[in-house]
Amino acid sequence: MLLQHQLVFDLLVDTNLIDGTGLARVFRTSRTGLAWAARAAARRIKAPKNADDGTTPCRGALVDSAAFLDIAGVAAACGAHVVAADARGAIACGRGGQGQRGVWSVGDSSNVEAVRWGREFSTPPRVAQLSVGRDFTVFVIGGGVAYGCGNGEQGQLGTAPAPIRSCSTPRQIPELRTRVWRCAAGVDYSLWIVGDDRAVVGLGANNHGQLGTGDYTARTTSVQRCRVGLEDGPARRWKPGDGVGAELIGVTCIAAGVNHALAVAGGVLYAWGARKFGQLGDPGQKKRAVPMPVRSHPLVPLACSLDGVTVVDCAAGNAFSLAVDADGGVHAAGTNRTGAMGLGGPPFFVSVAQRFQRVPIGDEDTRWAAEIFDRSDLSSNEVDALWGRGGRHEKVVSVACGHAHAICRTAEGRVYTWGGVHRSALLALGHGADDDIEARQRARLVPNVGNAVHVAAGGLLDGAASSLIVRADGAVFVASNEPSIYGQCLQAAAVTPDDAVAAAQCLGRFLELRPAIP
């Protein structure tokens, strides 16, 4: 089965504290390292230098209560194709017309196939992290080397697929010559955390400034580091001590939406790109080509819910953004047309929210929020302040966004989904083919799936949507409305498309993805 535990674990050690946020590196550790990793994650203390048996760290990760499980497996979903990996290699299924599955084929397939690597590998390489875009996939392998496959017409894979601008097997991206820590794939661009100082660079389309380079020029053969920007208007009131003009370094998390991007550095959320719908957390309408920290705006009377909190994770979708703070709270900004902000129906529903707001996760959180918002004796800022200090019964540790829906994982391994109120994206939520639009606008617990260690989501403008869950025992579950993915899930559930009754019962549910790796 995919993602099984290994005798020698890759776990979190060398834990540091940055602005109260527990960060860690992943080492190949002995059982001594395993014990120290567990203590460091639980107590947020610094592990001694001899806590591991000394190999090069291969990636960074956030510390949470599930951190010392075997999280070597990584997975991603783009709505149209799904890719997952563990120590033995990577697998993929779904659409493949541009070679985005990396299986030496440019056709769609509902069969789970192994990703085929180049002749430079005698055995499948260790995948540290991966991300999928509209029709391409990017990988970070080994000690931090960037690879990609699929469509590269916009330069999102650099010159790796030249001269044909697409490739059906992963190839190294030559523009990223320094160590790569993490990757994120948008519609037609890719972002990377590189170097010992963890700076952000990008490749591909840049028509909305989503590469964060200060201009709108696409990058196809070279990369440029992002710098914290300064805009005209009230933003100039910010003091030079805010680091304006300096390189955006120390980045621990990046996210690429349709045409905007997010990054977390030092516990602060930075945003850039398109912002017509408030997805950057401020009231501006003009696109922004430089990263800026998310905070309350001088001209907006309502406070930003990220003020004074430490951000540990982020995700970006189509015109909406999500962030997770160190206390496990989820915050959302942008358009709520598809319910992807998780604000629910009345009294939480808003069409466009140009600031970050807390999202109720779980029934108790929802009831508490309803009681606060019903109080007519409080101003909007007082409501926000009281709601932010309210009883929280779910501690979220990671989030992921599709085109029109979202998924999150709690420290206890529970999974919540919301959004997808238009078209058939609701089938990626794991709650079946329900018609309750108002319910889909609130975060709901996914039934019969627990002990999750990883979640992913994706979607396309044509309505394709998928969600993916990796469980601690190695099982991978997928909910999708994409035929080439959903059909494979039916096969795994021993259901044929001709069995209409059984297929209807599986529709919109999370089903186990059966890998082709022996």
Architecture overview:
- InterPro entries: Ran_GTPase-activating (IPR051553), RCC1/BLIP-II (IPR009091), Reg_chr_condens (IPR000408).
- GO terms for molecular function: guanyl-nucleotide exchange factor activity.
- RCC repeats lie at residues 144-196, 267-327.
- Pfam families: RCC1, RCC1_2.
- The protein has 518 residues and is mainly β.
- It is 10% helix and 34% strand.
- It has helices at 31-43, 363-373, 380-388, 437-440, 483-492, 500-506; strands spanning 10-18, 21-28, 60-62, 74-77, 81-86, 89-94, 109-114, 127-132, 136-141, 145-151, 166-172, 180-185, 189-194, 199-204, 251-256, 260-265, 268-273, 288-293, 311-316, 320-325, 330-335, 352-359, 396-401, 405-410, 415-419, 444-445, 452-459, 465-471, 476-480, 511-512.
- The longest helix has 13 residues, at 31-43.
Low-confidence stretches: 1-72, 232-238
Helix-residue proportion:
10-25%
**Proportion of strand residues:** 25-35%
User: How many strand elements?
Assistant: 30
Strand line-up of the largest beta sheet: 4-5-6-7
Give the end-to-end Cα distance, rounded to a whole number of Å: 8 Å
What's the pLDDT, averaged over the residues? 78
In short, what is this structure?
The chain has helices at 31-43, 363-373, 380-388, 437-440, 483-492, 500-506, and strands at 10-18, 21-28, 60-62, 74-77, 81-86, 89-94, 109-114, 127-132, 136-141, 145-151, 166-172, 180-185, 189-194, 199-204, 251-256, 260-265, 268-273, 288-293, 311-316, 320-325, 330-335, 352-359, 396-401, 405-410, 415-419, 444-445, 452-459, 465-471, 476-480, 511-512.
